[in-house]
Amino acid sequence: MSEITLQGLEKQYGETTAVEDVSVEIADGELLCLLGPSGSGKSTTLRMIAGLETPTAGSIRIDDEDVTDQPAYDRNTSTVFQDWALFPHKTVRENVAFGLKMRGVSREERTERAEEMLERVQMGGYGDDDPTNLSGGQKQRVALARSLAVNPDVLLLDEPLSNLDKRLREDMQIELREIHEDLEETFVHVTHDQDEAFTLADRIGIMNEGQLIQVGDPDEIYENPRNRFIEGFLGDTNFVDGTVGSVGPDSVAVETKFDSEITIPADTAHDLDEGTELTLSLRPEIFSIERPTADDSQRQVLADGAAANAVVGTIDNVLYRGSTVRYSVSAGDTSIFVERTDTTEESLAVGDEIRIEWNGSDVLAFRTDGTRIPL
């Protein structure tokens, strides 16, 4: 068993609080990604699990053993670092076998284990090579093999793919996921890359300003972000400020800088009074777009229900992104961006008018303090 329990974990450097009151339980065999911007405390949290940093407060338990004050060499954990940290004067095989040598494993056994791990990370046949002659992706595989060779209870990965180019990084994400599924060991992976977290994780923990602010399955995190920070950090979206104009039995009309109000469902309408200020999130994938017809300039709300919305706007900018095209559109006194994934359709150009449609049930709403409003 390799369960990890962090309880009230804190780390201070002088008057600076790097990690504040982090509590989470990581299940045996789980891959948890700590996701957040630079300086959010995720790497410091990982280093405390590894024993490379001592917590200022709180506790760390691995397999129900309190390891809070235990040195790193007494914990059966292994860490893969961002910069690989390979020994240039040792061969690839010697690098992979180094941890086993430090544990007193015989030469024959550590050579066999090193070769096994190199094969696992698709580096078989490179054992005699000089690591300085390897590519970035190959160095990362060797670093991963070295960490796996000691058969750790917990593998800790601190932004291990951030130095790789996009294509190689994506390939390594898939390989890392397959290795985890094969080994069924507990992994804690730190990253600032949203796509990487969603590709790898069984669960994602979002960190910001030293705090762990939401933990959940990838789909739960994406569909139900707890606050505006998470919504903005997870991907591109349009934030539109508004004020509640009217409250009905099952919907709310929000006045915005569009020419028309935005109508959203409101099962909790009693929590929203007229005049309440809020921010709406309109993700680009919720839109459908087409050229307007003659009466669209007068039509502000679609005919298929109170929660459907439409605005007519003018394209200000077109950004071709290969598989998608992004359009910046002026609508009323504000602007939004929309995307079309089918680039084979009729092209749209700067100056064209388009109608943008979406359903109010796809809108997320946040209070001025950033907390989510359930709709």
- Residue-averaged pLDDT: 90
Indicate the low-confidence ranges by residue numbers.
Answer: 297-306
- Head-to-tail CA distance between termini: 41 Å
Calculate Rg over CA atoms: 26 Å
H/E series, N to C? Answer: EEEHEEEHHHEHEHEEHHEEEEEEEEEEE
Instruction: Tally the beta strands.
Output: 21
Main sheet strand line-up: 6-7-8-3-9-10
Major β-sheet, in short?
6 strands, mixed
Shape by Cα distribution? elongated
Kindly report the name of the CATH homologous superfamily of the largest domain.
P-loop containing nucleotide triphosphate hydrolases
Q: Can you put this structure into words, describing what you see?
A:
This protein has 375 residues and is α+β, with helices and mostly antiparallel strands. The chain folds into 2 domains: 4-227, 3-Layer(aba) Sandwich (Rossmann fold), CATH 3.40.50; 236-373, RNA polymerase II/Efflux pump adaptor protein, barrel-sandwich hybrid domain (OB fold (Dihydrolipoamide Acetyltransferase, E2P), Beta Barrel). The protein contains 8 helices and 21 strands. It has helices spanning 42-50, 92-102, 107-120, 136-149, 166-183, 194-200, 218-223, 228-234, and strands at 4-13, 16-26, 31-35, 57-62, 65-66, 77-80, 154-158, 186-191, 203-208, 211-216, 238-247, 251-255, 262-265, 277-282, 288-290, 308-320, 325-331, 334-340, 353-359, 364-367, 372-373. A 6-stranded mixed beta sheet has the order 6-7-8-3-9-10, sandwiched between helices. A 6-stranded antiparallel beta sheet has the order 13-12-11-14-20-21. It has a 5-stranded antiparallel beta sheet with strand order 15-19-16-17-18, with no helix packed on it. It starts with a strand and ends with a strand. Mean pLDDT is 90; it is low at 297-306. Belongs to the ABC transporter superfamily. Sulfate/tungstate importer (TC 3.A.1.6) family. It is an enzyme of class 7 (translocase). Keywords: ATP-binding, Molybdenum, Nucleotide-binding, Transport.
